[in-house]
Amino acid sequence: MSDKIAVLVAGSWGTALASVLASNQLDVALWTRTEEQAKEINERHTNERYLPGVELSPRIRATSVMEEAVSGSSAVIIVAPSSAMRAVSKQLKRCWNERMLVVHATKGFELESLKRMSTVISEELGCDEGRVVVLSGPSHAEEVVRRCPTTVVVASSDEQAAAAAQDLFMNAYFRVYTNRDMVGVELAGALKNIIALGAGMSDGLGFGDNAKAALLTRGLAEISRIGIELGANPLTFAGLAGIGDLVVTATSQHSRNWRAGSLLGQGKKVDEVLESMGMVVEGIRTTKAAYAISEKYGVQMPIADQLYHVLFKDRAPRSAVEALMGRDPKTEMEMMPLQTWKQWHNT
Questions:
Q1: Residue 56 · residue 50 · CB < 8 Å
Q2: Which residues are annotated as a binding site for sn-glycerol 3-phosphate?
Q3: Annotated binding site for substrate: which residue ranges?
């Protein structure tokens, strides 16, 4: 395998993953959309907009020319926003070859088609979806670049591809597990952003720890319900991509989704929140996608439903919480059909 790895694009998470690869003594070509950002990374070894106060390894070299980043690379790590994933993958097609390992670390859906990111990438590259590896799990970029102990998961139906991604990233502070359940890992990574928005909103309203604990627990039930419907392994939601990522995203001020939700709870409108954040908040787009997915498959997602109405139908956050609390009484445990359990237990 070549010692050169391409990372697309130079946001906070892309830059953090580039730093992990550089610390593994790999040469990283970091693609950015602007020459100005490339110049800053190359000359000052900083990316102040996305990771202020961080000094980057000189092994990271940035370029605004994708062909230059990808040429000669043994692996391509795609960390584009979900809204840009198809366009970035289409551009990558011109310089990608089938010998390159493809890993994506984006948590979201394509809004128009409701497709997962691995599906979008495989369609544009013209490769089997199993060739794409998903990297997910509880991992704030701000902590990864400071080499705080972090554990993630890489998932692919191609065990060799997952193992190659594991070898690429694994080091003393960045531990990587493999998982065959690509569907579950992608769904968990995307949908937890909705619950993190709700947790932030609860905190912004001043509702305390009891409310947030309930929100996270019932949120995980929602994620699991839709995941099982779409063919995921239910055990995935009890792992790093599920409860691990949910906890870190819904309880930390590093989390954009938590911060956005907190501002909503304090009475800010969606447009004001997005303007003040200055970066992509995947949970907002994902809420719209999840609402459509729950309608399409007939699966109840009451938290996502109420957040959809707050974000896109101008419902007051306090009214949304009252609607959740006022739902008809339910049993806590939604029992999995025996045949489904047997299927996954024997996998």
A1: no
A2: 107, 137, 139, 192, 245, 255-257
A3: 107, 256-257
Please give the CATH number for the structural domain made up of 186-335: 1.10.1040.10
Domain map (residue ranges) of the chain: 4-180, 186-335
Residue-wise burial string across 141-174, b where 16 or more C-beta atoms lie within 10 A, e elsewhere? bbbbbeeeebebbbbbbbeebbebbbebbeeeeb
The residue among 129, 183, 186, 131 whose CA lies nearest residue 162 is 131
What tens-digit pLDDT sequence spans the chain (347 residues)?
679 999 999 999 999 999 999 999 999 999 999 999 999 999 999 999 999 999 999 999 999 999 999 999 999 999 999 999 999 999 999 999 999 999 999 999 999 999 999 999 999 999 999 999 999 999 999 999 999 999 999 999 999 999 999 999 999 999 999 999 999 999 999 999 999 999 999 999 999 999 999 999 999 999 999 999 999 999 999 999 999 999 999 999 899 999 999 999 999 999 999 998 888 899 999 999 999 999 999 999 999 999 999 999 999 999 998 888 887 787 776 655 444 544 544 55
Query: Cα–Cα distance between 104 and 85 in angstroms, integer?
Result: 10
Beta bridge mates, 152:
176
Of the listed 192, 268, 269, 313, which one is catalytic?
A: 192
Q: Which residue has the tokens 């047997």?
A: 342
CA separation, residue 342 to residues 10, 156, 179, 228, 346 (Å): 43, 22, 19, 13, 6
CATH of domain 4-180: 3.40.50.720
346 phi-psi bin (left φ>0, alpha ψ -120 to 50, beta other): alpha
| 3-class secondary structure per residue, 161-204 | HHHHHHHHHCCCCEEEEEECCHHHHHHHHHHHHHHHHHHHHHHH
Residues within the annotated binding site for NADPH? 12-13, 33, 50, 107, 141, 256, 280, 282
> Which residues are annotated binding-site positions for NAD(+)?
141, 256
Q: Known catalytic residue: 330?
A: no
